[in-house]
Structure formats: C-alpha cells, structure tokens
Amino acid sequence: MKLTSLTIRALASASTLALASAAFAQSFEVDCTVTGNALPADCGVPNAGTVVGVDVGANTEIDNDTATLGDSGFSISIDGEQVSGDARVEDLTRQTDIALSNADVQVKFDGLGATPALDLAIADERESFEAGDTITFRSKTNYPAYLARGEVRIIDYSGRSGPRVVAVVPVAPNGTVSVTVPEGDDLVAVHRVYDASGRFDETEALGLNRDQRGDGDFIDGGLPDLEEGADRTAIRRIPVSGGAVTVYGTGVRQGAQVQTLGETITPAPDGSFVVQRILPAGETDVEVRVTGAGEDLYLQRGVTIPRSEWFGVATVDLTFGYRTDGGKDAAGGGFDKYYDRGRLAFYTKGKTQSGWEITASADTGEDDLSEIFRNLDKKDPRHLLLRLDSDKAYPVYGDDSTIVEDAPTSGKFYLKAERDGNYALWGNYKGNITGSQLLRNERTLYGAQGHYATQAQTEKGEARVTVDLYAAQPDNLPGRDTFRGTGGSVYFLQRQDLSIGSETISVEIRDPDTNRVIDRQTLVYGRDYDINYLQGVVTLNRPLTGAVGGGTVVTDPLGENTVILTVNYEYTPTSGSVDGYAYGGRVQVWATDNLRFGATGMVEQTDIADQTAQGVDLRYELSDNSYLELEYARTEGPGFGQSFSADGGLIVTNTGPVGGTGEAYLARGQLEFADLNPDLNGRVSFYAEQREAGFSTLDYQTTNDEDLYGFALEYEPTDKLGWRLYYDDFTDSAGKTVREGGAELSYKISERLTWDLGVEHVRKNTPGDPDETGSRTDVAARLTVTQSERLEWYAYAQGTVKHSGGLTKNNRVGVGGRYEFTPNWAFEGELSDGSTGVGALALLSYESDDNTSAYFGYTLDPRREFNGVTLSGKDRGQFIAGGRRKLGRDVSVYAENTYDLFGTHRSLTSTYGVDYERSEFLTYSASAELGRINDPLGDFDRTALSFGVRYENQTGVSGRGRLEYRRDRGILSGSQRDGDTIAASATLRYKIDEERRFLFSFDGSYTDTDGSSIPDGRYAEVTLGYAYRPIENDRLNVLAKYTYLHDLYGQEVDGTNEPGPRQKSHVFSLDASYDLDRQWTVGGKLGARFSKSSPNATAAFQNNDAWLAVANARYHVTHKWDLLVEGRVLRAEQAGTTEYGLLGAAYRHIGNNYKIGVGYNFGKFSDDLTDLTFDDRGVFINLIAKF
C-alpha cells in the first residue's frame, strides 16, 4: 500500500530517536539491546507514554498499483522485489528508482517556485550576416506545455522612422529554424511565443552582428541540446503556474541520446545532461528513454504536481506580570504594577489552489500588548554605513545560516499577493508610473502598491485594462542630476549617501533650443553602468558623447541634438526628517486593438515639495510605426528641482522647484506611408506642445509660457532618390522665438557614392542677447563615399547666402569618416573650420571579445558653453582617454582621463581601477577618482579613493573589506566646499572546524564637511563573535561576543530632528551551557559594559560601567516540562550599587507548538545590560507558540 497523505504517531521508545536530537542519543546512551526477543528492563525515557503527532506532506508519486492484497492480507517487498506475502503486488515505483540509480539518471520535482525562461540562440560562429545569408536560430524555453506556437521576428533598426519588422518566421518552442537574412543595415532578432489565448512572451533583441552580442548568444559547433537555463525575457504576458520537474544524469555513453519531457537531448561529451520543464498541476508520467551506443533503457515515473505549496515559520511570545514593588526607571520614576508585553513574528510564502502566490512577514518587536500592533508601518532607523556594505555583520551562532531578503521592507511587516502578474504589495518598491510623456514617477518608496492587468489582451499582447496605484510615506528625498555627455564614462552626483537600488538612470536626446525630449533610453545596472552609493559616483560601461545627429546643414559640427544623462535617486537628508506622504497611480484602457486611453494622477506632500499632478492621454496605433498621441497634464505646487553639469559633476548648476500652477498639452504622431500602400516608402511626423509657467515635472521646470511645434516629411520615390522637408517653431512668454525650416535632397549615384544637398532658414529672437537675434539662410552639400565595409568617409561644404541681425554667418567646410582597421580597432573623426571657429572630433577605439577596450578622443566644439562659467581666453577643447583590459586571467584594469581646456577654466578628471584575482579565493579591487579645476575665480580639487578585498576558500575562511576616502578642497560654484570623508567596512568569518565558528566585523567612518551632503562626526563599531556548537557530543555549547561602539554622530532615532546621545562603549558577553545528563543542563552568562555617554555635542562624557553574572539550571523533558532556576548579580560601578536576583520558572509543553510558563523574579533587574530600568521584581506568566 502507498500513502498519499500520512500522519506519524511515535510512542515513547521511538520519540527519543525521531524527535530528540541525535546528539542526545549519542551523549547519553541507554542500553536497549534486544536480548531474547525482549528489551532490558531499564530501557526507558522520561517522556514515556507521550504521543506526538507530526504531519507529513503529500506524496508526489502517483499510486498506480491496483492489485489487492489477496487472502494473506499483506505483502513485503525490498527495493521493489516481493519477498513475502501476495506475489501479485509489486512496488514498481521502487524498481524504477533502482533502475534510474543504476543508470545515473535522476528525476526530481523542484517545487512550485520555478522561474519561466525563454531565450534565442544562433548556431553559427560568423562575425556577422549579410542579406541573402542563411542563419539558424534555436528556441530555448522551459515551459513548452503552456505554449501553442512560436516565431522569430527580424527587425531593422536602421530606418529613419524607427524599428521595422522585416521578417516573421514560425518556429516550434525548443525547435530550430533556418532563415534567409533580409535586407537591412541594423538587423536584430527577437523570439516570441504565444499561448492558446494569444498572449505572448518575447526575448530581448539579439543582434545579428557579433559585436552586438555576447559569447552566450552563440552555440559553437552546431546545436548541442544542453539545458543552459538562460532567461532573456523582455516582455512577459503568459501566466505560468505549475511545478518544475528536472531530469538529469551523468555517465551516458558518447553517441547515445536521451528522450524525456518531450525533448531529444544529446548529452555533453562527458555524458552529462540536464533538462527542466514547468508542468501544469495534476498527475503526469515522466518517461526517460536512453538509446544508441549500446544503451537501451526505458523508465517511467509518475509525478503529481500539487496545486498548492506553503512554507512558513512563526512565533508568538506573550508575558503577563505583576511587579511587587511597582518598579522604578533610571530617573526614579514609577511604573504600573501590572504589565503585559509580547512579540509577534512570522514569515510565510506559498501558492494557493486558486493560483495566488503569497509572501508575507511581520515582526512587531517586543512591546506592550497595547502597542505592538500600532505603527506597524513605522520605519527602522538606518545609518550611513548600510550604504557602504549591505552585508551587515551579525553575531555568529555556528549554524552557517545565510540571509535572503525575500520580503524587503523598511517597516515592521511585508505583504505581497500575486496571481497572473497582478499583485498587491506593502513594503519597499519602485513606483514605476510610465506610459505618459508628461508625467512619470521613478521613485523608490515604502508603502502600498498595486498592479492589475486584465487577462484579455490586444493582438499585440497589451492588457486591455491596466491599473497601477501606490501610496507611501517617504523617509528619503528624491534627487535628480542631469549631465551633458562628456565623451567619458564617469559622472559625480551632487549628493552622497544614496539609498541602495533607488536609482533610475536614462540617456535622453534633447533639442538644445527648446529642451524637448526627442528620445529616451533607460539603462540597466550591471550591463550599462555601475554606481558607488556612498560616494555618489556613476560609471558607465561605455563613454557617452555630448551631441548626436543632425541634418545636411549643420549648426554645431559635433551634433545638432544634445545627449543628456539623467540620474534619479533617493538620498538621506543630513538634517531634519521627511514628513508627509506621496500617492498616485495610472489607469490605461485599450478600447480597441489600436486605441488606448490613459489617466495619471500623483500627489507629493513633504516639507520640501507640495505638488499635485494629474493628466490624461490618448494613443492610436495604426502599426508599430504609425501612431497618434494626445496628452494633457496639470501640476499645482512646487516639485523638487534638479541640477545640471556639463563637465561630469565638477561644476553644478541647481534649478530650484517651480511653484504655482501650470498646464501642458502635447500632440505628436507619425504616419508610415507603407501602412497605406506597400509601394510607398516614406513617412510624415509632427509634434505640438504647450506648457504654461508653473508646470513642473521630472523633465520640465517651466518658468515662462512655452509653445512649440514642428513636422518632418520624408519620401523616397526610388532606391536612389530621397527628399525631406522639416520645420520647428518655438516661442515663450518672455519673447524668445526660434523658427527653423529646411529641405534636403539625397541621391545615390552608385553603391559607393551618395550626394546630399540642403537648404535651411533660421530666425531667432532672444531678448537681452543681440548675438542670438536675427535670421540666416544656409545651403550645404555633402559627398559620402562608402569605400568598403571597413571604410566610409565624407566631405561637406556649406555657406550662408543671407543673414541679418546678430546671427553670424555659418560658413563651414569639413571632412570626416570611420575606418575599421581590424574587427577590433576603429577610428572615427571629423575636422572642420568655419565662421564660428575650428571644430574637431577624433576617437580611436578598440574592443575585443575578452572584455578588453580602449579609447582615446578629442573634441573641440566652437559653440560650447559652461553654465556658471564665462569663457575667458580661447577654448582649446577636451581630451579623453580610457579603457578596460584583462591582463591574463587574474587582473582587470580600467582607467579614464579627461582634460578640459575651456579658456582659463581648466579641469582634469581621472579615474583608475583594478581588480586582481590573486587566486581562485582572493580578489583585490582598487579605484581612484581625481578631479581638479583651475579657474581665476577659485580652484577646486576632488579626490576619491577606494580599496576592497574579498577572500573565500574551501576550508571555511571568508572575508571582505572596503576602505573609501573622499577629499574636497577649494571653491565650487561660488562657495567654499572643503570636506573629508573616510569610511571602512570589513567582515571576516572563520569556520575553525565543523563545530566552531569565529566572526569579526568593523564599520567605521570619519567625516569633516560643511554638512551639506554628509554630517560631521565619527563612528566606529567593532564586533567579535565566537560559537562552539559540537555535533557528535553536544553537552557543552558556548557563544561569545565583544562589541566596541564609538559614536560621535549622535544617530537620529525614529526620524526625529535632533541627533541622539553620543557614546563610547565596550560590551562583553559570554553564554555557555552544559548538559549534566539527558534532563539537566547548567549554564551561565557573564557580561560587562564599560561606557561613556553624552546627551549632546556640548555635554561632557560621563562614565557608565556595569557588569552582570548569571548562573542557571534547567530541567528538560521532551514534550513535557521545562524548569528553570537562575541567579543574577548586577554591579553598577559609578553608582556603587550591587543588585542580587533570583528567578524561578516552570513551563509545560502542550503538543508540538505551545508551552505555558509561570515564574517569579526575586530581583529588580533583567539580564540585559542596556536595560536601565529596575522594574522586573514580581511574578509573571509566559505563553509561547511556535509554528
């Protein structure tokens, strides 16, 4: 017989083995050897007669046996072979287990928490593919049971109107397909899979050129069927709610194949293989067949995928007491005689039968019962050093446990309920309110968040209705720093002490005259950038240029549009608390497959900001490239402002929040002619925006009424001929106007030669700036020569045929091009001269597949300006050099130097870093960031140094440490900015052996600043921990800890405006217990505190020393009784007092989960040296529940 559900009841003689620790059995041996078919008379245990029920989870194997037991009434089998009883009954499942083991094949149920994975790979090692080549793709996914079909979509990103799908090829999930590469200059492929309801998942774009891909995108040498487990899903719409089954094995003969879970797998050369599939809930048969190369094995295992699975732990601790003398606090004040205190803590995670996945946790902390459920959303105070190293040190308990933050929260509880992508959450989250062009929210908040999307979708996979809501009480302030690209990769933020994970970093393309955002791309941490949260330094993985794009007629030789790096983040203010709240949300509805309505509302009320914003929008899509958008938004009250820097963060210009009320209107659209007639190649686009003074958002701080509109018309009547018309218009209430229009003609003479002609007229009026007032008409011609795939160059000439007012002529001639010396080396540059001066751009770059890169560049922009800096002398441009390189297998280095010669204002910024893998166990890292400004109005220097080390070996020694230093000296933006910051963090864990552990941790900081970003103060905390937890004989257990705290900051407590008391203290603690026999344990505790404290920065430090000694004896009978007698001595040195105490308590166990205790404390104090009250004498009742 098999059991699908089982409850075990163990009698006394078995409970010692099943429920007491194995160490007890070995420490206190009882002679229970069977002699003459009988147990010895003294074979007994104190809890004899106790019956304890233990629930066992459901069996995941299917009971396929249908035979009855017959007349004998029993059947006994070993490893599936029947040895006694009815021969008709065989344990086929156990026989399958033996056969699988002999074949080194295992079938495993992984539970309900598997993550769906989707990927696309290319089966070719070629560097790139050209039109007409054949390319083979392979689909990879672990949830084919939920899929109805799949396809590979090839997209061309090179079109002027944006990405365009040029081919769609069907492919079965986990299948392969060969495709003829279509025409296109910038082709990528995405893999899309659909379920039976038409919902789809889609991968990230995979470039068809090797320099667009990573090594993992290739399957070298064909298509081996190895399960790699990679997931590159970019869009996830298909609900997957089942359990994962993994089949894996080793030792399969070379040339053999494995068929299982609907797949045919070719093992690796060493004979190993692994395949995982997510299967729907219910009963299923997993078949494994190994054939070929002399193998012939067929096995079948029945598996039941449960619909529900839960894990959880909880504890409830309640104490009710009566103080015989009322008790007194440290100041001599009285307490009530009756008291009740308690603590509730739990964590649970699971999935219900209806498909809801629940994650919840709470910890009220110990408090009065009337208070523990109040202020559950109260935030825990944090300090500066948590930003330096998130691996916070904890005392060691010798159990090798690790912490996974599955329920991130800044308060006392966390809750998330999710099903089919919809969820409600209380905890920490990022309020990503997107979909509107005018209103966005990218803040990291603590509070409530909800997301709902209907299962009904459009033909493009968009949910018909989507609702996003949030509500929070922010404890940090938002910062927004914007930088113009410097051609480098290092950018210094204005703030330090950032909240970890709070950043949202984007690259924006903007119109320099109107500040209109033309395009925006959000960067990904790790892949695109790295960030130092303590120092506030962003390092991009690739250099960012300052300008891009432009037409045939150029005004700025380096690029017509400005490239802006925007960094939104949360930071901790150095003084005061952040009171108030923030809430908002967005609702969007797709009324049809093409028409979407949206509404957004946000409220931000803090001591700094008091703003309400709301908006509505509409989008109509004819296709991916043809659309119409209409939007209205209104803001009331000031927001948060922002900063701007043109040199990477050395010179910063702050823009304060704009007050008042303002409205904004936006309309934009595009029509691809091919959507009307496939034979037409062209498009028309337009935009129109109106913003009133007082309109304030992340992107705009509007101080004057602004109106802007424009259009562009492009048409290519033949493969050789194309033309374009464009016009842009901007006016504001201050009298500024910018009107610019032009026409361009492009003619492709041959495959190698292309002529471009253009004419442009511009009219400007800038009050107070006659040099930017007037009109001008320019004409230009450009010849582009495509010499080969590796070399392209161009030459252009333009001239002003008419101008008036203060606008200067725009005559210019120049040459430029790009040359790829090798697949790794490339040079691009331009040199021009004209009416506004010499312009130059040169960039020599190197990139290889082993993560080695280098670049050297020079830019000279004749129209460059620095906010807050007046050009004195001649601008001689900017040099930049940098790179990354892996030196052998052990050392990786990177460096960047930027030297700016803006007249007499000169700056040098240098960044250096190295990672050295001394061995497979030891890694060093170091970095240096240096900046210097030389200016007649004041010099400024910045130095930031960082050194880190990480060590971990196989013998149980691990450690990590980091030391960081930042020094500012001089005048910056007109104010003195001297400051020094030193911070360090270190952790060492030593596994002496299987029974002993040692831990060391250090956190320290020193700051001497003006207090604008990080407060002045000193802080150091040293912790030593030791644990002795024997395995074979656990009579003796020891825990020891030493802590040194040197806190001169006066840490803020619970968000108060005033800093708390300062202190210098040493605290020692030693706990030990020893088992005399199976029931009796004696133990003790020694503690000492040597401390000096001061209530504020002006008061003198006072000594406050004490020591504590505790001795106890415990009597324990498993599942019955716990008795405790404890004596205590507390000595307060400065007060000259010695307190004695005696405590007795008795606990009775009730089942597996409960116990109740009663006790009496004859002393007035507790065993907590930080407890300065004397309120503990009296009787108490303690109720404990554990689950």
UniProtKB/TrEMBL annotation:
Keywords: Signal. The keyword Signal applies. Residues 1-25 form the signal peptide. This is Flagellar motor protein.
